[in-house]
Amino acid sequence: MPATRVLMNNLRQVMAEDGDTRSRLDHVVRLIATTMVADVCSIYVREADGALLLIATEGLRPEAVNKTRLTENEGLVGFVARTAEPIAIEDAPRHPAFSYRPETGEDPFHAFLGVPILRTGGVTGVLVVQNQTERTYGEEEIDTLQTISMVLAEIVHTLNEAPSPQSAPDRRMRGAGGGNLKGRVFCEGLGFGRAVLHDPVVPPAKFFAADQVQEAERLNQGLVDLRAAIDRMMLIDGAALGEDPRDVMETYRLLAYDTSWAEKLHEGIRAGLSAEASVDRARREHRAKLQHARDPYLRERLHDLEDLDNRLLRVLGGEEGKLLITGDESVLVARRLGPAELLEYAKAGLKGLLMEEAAASSHAAIVARALGIPAIGGIEGLTTRIEQGDYIIVDAEEGSVHIRPDDVVYDAYRSRVALRSERQAEYAKLKGLPARTLDGTDVSLMLNAGLDLDLDMLEQAGADGVGLFRTEFQFLVSESLPRLEDQISLYKRVLDRAAGRPVVFRTLDLGGDKVLPALSQLREENPALGWRSIRFALDHKGLFRRQLRALVRASGERPLTVMFPMVTIPEEYRAAKALLMEEIAWSAKKTGKQPSRLEVGVMLETPALGFAMQDLGPEVDFLSVGTNDLLQFFFAADRMTPSVSERYDLVDPAALRYLKMVAEICKAHKIRLSVCGEATASPPVALCFAALGYTSLSMAASAIGPVKQALRKVDLNAFRKGLFERMDKPNGSFRNQVLALAAEHGIDTADS
Ligand code: PEP
Ligand code: MG
User: Fold this and answer.
1) 709 lines ligand 1 (CB under 6 A)
2) What span, in angstroms and rounded, lies between the C-alpha atoms of 332 and 74?
């Protein structure tokens, strides 16, 4: 029997043993040293600060256990942890990275083989074997050690678990006080529930295969099913999107058919792993590489590979591997998540969403907001710290996550939930009342939407209509391009449910961060500045016309309002409007129907358009500020890069002066002014816009109550006067000045 299988058999027994973790580890190092004919076998575990602590050894001095600590930049062990790659050396003391620790007594050992211990999210330790003689470790030995290190990862992990001091209530699970994590609030709120990990988890009990032949067959069948699913995706009619996205899909397909990937997975099975564990091993390696890869192309491919690993795990798991959400007590934990996936989970009910990657304006975040799910993103180390089933508090007011909270933290959370519902009750009282300022200015408060389910909120939040309907969402959440009929029926449903209230349909805004899952876009250096939005639509006339036709057909003889995104120069608006007018004429001829009233507008997202409004003057009915994009272009700060996306504030004298100038041009041309970016969700920002003359504000449902409350308390003329004085003479933090002004008007700015 090959060494790996012998070891795996023995390890399986050790895993099944009851004993404490340390004695198990001692047992394991002895086993490995004997089977691999090594003089030394040691395990180092990575601590919170990155240092590597020797926790078990066969062959080094026992006194060194729990004493020898290497920093992450120290020694060959540190080298393995840093690079997440195995290293095999004939004569270790001669290697430049070698660090000698006398307490270990490792002088006589020359040959060194170290492999990373990888768990979800990264390196958690290093497994080492050493021999006295100068010898070369072969491929097979390296592979064996890597396979074993995966099993070890689970045993080592249990060491980091704080044992529960007393009999802990169920809520605490594996010991109370699992620590806090910080991130950025994507959707405000508070939630509590048990963690459900989005990436499939392979439990240690499923690591080993009872029957190797059967397991290889399962893997082959899994690969066949996976490839067939990808082939089906390729059959989707992507003609309207051109050839390039097809190339990207083709690369994905090539990876799925790659024989070296399949061979690597079979190797795992030959070593005694189950099909799932073998895929999991590959996934850990891809992830570890991803953490170190800088080149964007390589990163993209590694993401693809990780996606494939996850897909294959789901295929192997069948129904079982799908959604684990039961009832409505779950907090979803994901590294990355597409809007379609989030929607699927949300159907089963979610108390919160935590994500490692993505910026606040990513589409999973926007969907979370639409659904009102408390959500936090940009949390480093999320998937390494949270285990399936952990109890979690999602504090999406502060942007913090409490893992396995103790009683004090849990009680504080409960009182905040109570306070929050008191506030909600106050907002609910305002529902039937107008958003009228003390001095009599009426502001329309509209809803940002993009999904059918958003429309439930129209009534609930008391919105005056839909100020932004993001039509690309239907595309983003479908596996294939929505057909004309699908588009017509969605737009009809929206108009029906709005029941006469205005609905502003924003035409397709694809590209940038909104890539279709089935047909992803071309790889671009700067997607935000790239081939997106109206530029993309005008270059894909078939796709664009089909949408315009759907809008015209859905409206029938009802009023129709259409808005074009990211218009930069007047010609783009004119070209888009001309296509719309052609579709209206065509529809009138074909069906005898045309919209009873037509309004066409532009989104102000690029600074250039503000200066061009005087030329567009009489051709445009309204302008709507897309604060998300405008902010990124005005300050040249990518909205998808967390380190800069919140660096700049729209409450800034330069930005407000610009918006004031645009408002003045528009007023001169009788162009109606509105705002539909996320910024107006904050009451003081909403007040600034209202003061500048933007009297239609569109926002997420949850913002309508607080904004209405603020508007009803303010004397807008007085606020405007104060704002303009401060804009003329800014002094220190402008946001603080505006907050102080709002507070003078009796507005609660505690959360702003
Ligand atoms: C915006 O940019 O502000 C906007 C509303 O559009 P989106 O967030 O969909 O890009
Ligand atoms: Mg935008």
Assistant:
1) no
2) 37
- With the most atoms of ligand 1 within 8 angstroms of its CB, the residue from 361, 529, 633 to mutate is 361
What gap in Å lies between CA 350 and CA 456, rounded to an integer? 17
Ligand number, closest to the Cα atom of 628? 1
Q: List, in sequence order, every beta strand (DSSP E) within 676-740.
A: 696-699
Between CA 107 and CA 100 the distance in angstroms is 8
* Residue 66 identity (one-letter amino acid): N
Q: Whole-structure pTM over 0.85, yes or no?
A: no
Residue 98's alpha-carbon distances to 83, 136, 481, 646, in angstroms, are: 15, 17, 57, 43
Residue with tokens 């998540």: 337
**Ligand 2 center to 42 CA (angstroms):** 54
Average pLDDT along the chain, 752 residues, taken 10 residues at a time: 74 77 85 90 88 92 91 88 89 85 84 87 86 86 85 75 43 60 90 89 83 93 89 56 52 84 91 91 84 72 81 77 62 81 80 81 73 89 83 94 93 93 92 96 95 82 95 78 93 95 96 63 79 93 96 97 98 98 96 97 98 96 97 92 85 97 97 95 95 96 93 97 96 93 88 68
Domains and CATH numbers, the chain: 2-160 (3.30.450.40), 179-198+325-419 (3.50.30.10), 204-316 (1.10.274.10), 433-744 (3.20.20.60)
Contact 114, 97 (CB under 8 A): no
Q: Judge if the beta carbon of residue 25 lies within 6 A of ligand 1.
A: no
Single out the catalytic residue among 157, 198, 363, 745: 363
The answer, yes or no, to whether any atom of ligand 1 lies below 6 A from the CB of 369, is: no
Pocket test of ligand 1: the residue of 448, 629, 659 to mutate, having most ligand atoms within 8 Å of its CB, is 629
Question: Residue 681 C-alpha to ligand 1 middle, in angstroms?
Answer: 13
629 lines ligand 1 (CB under 6 A): yes
Q: Which residue out of 363, 474, 603 has the highest number of ligand 1 atoms within 8 Å of its CB and is therefore the one to mutate?
A: 603
Residue nearest to atom 4 of ligand 1 (CA): 626
> Of 138, 499, 196, 150, which is closest to residue 352 (Cα–Cα)?
196
Q: Whose CA is nearest to atom 9 of ligand 1?
A: 470
What gap in Å lies between CA 609 and CA 567, rounded to an integer? Answer: 7
- Measure the CA–CA gap between 721 and 270, rounded to whole angstroms: 77
**What residues have CB less than 8 Å from 232, skipping those under 6 apart?**
none
Residues whose CB is less than 8 angstroms from the CB of residue 113 and which lie 6 or more positions away in sequence, other chains included: 86, 87, 88, 89, 128, 129, 130, 137, 141, 142, 145
